[in-house]
């Protein structure tokens, strides 16, 4: 078995870039190879704990839920 390199996670990094476009401008998304998770950082004025999930669809749904809650003036 070969040693791990970033190339092994190419699809995850590409998915993170797609999530960045999908969740912009309020979220910045990255793939964490050490955690094996996508992490979304809120870029708005509220203090939101970074979202973490291994499934990009679930992460996107959670980010949208938080955005809707903030738009209603309710903390998520």
Description:
The protein has helices at 10-23, 56-71; strands at 27-32, 37-42, 51-53. With 76 residues, the protein is an alpha+beta fold. A three-stranded antiparallel beta sheet has the order 1-2-3. Helix 1 (10-23) packs parallel to helix 2 (56-71). It is elongated and about 50 Å long. The termini are far apart.
Helix coverage percent: 25-40%
- The DSSP helix count reads 2
Low-pLDDT residue spans: none
Taking Cα atoms only, what radius of gyration do you get, to the nearest Å? Answer: 14 Å
Dominant shape: elongated
Strand order, sheet with most strands: 1-2-3
**What's the SSE pattern?**
HEEEH
Task: Count the beta strands.
Answer: 3
Largest sheet: 3 strands, antiparallel
Distance between the termini: 44 Å
Fraction of residues in β-strands: 15-25%
Averaged pLDDT: 92
> What oligomeric arrangement do these chains adopt?
single chain
Structural class: alpha+beta
Topology:
Layout: H1 10-23, E1 27-32, E2 37-42, E3 51-53, H2 56-71
Antiparallel strand pairs: 1-2, 2-3
Helix pairs in contact: 1-2
Main attributes of the structure:
76 residues, alpha+beta, three-stranded antiparallel sheet, 3 strands, elongated
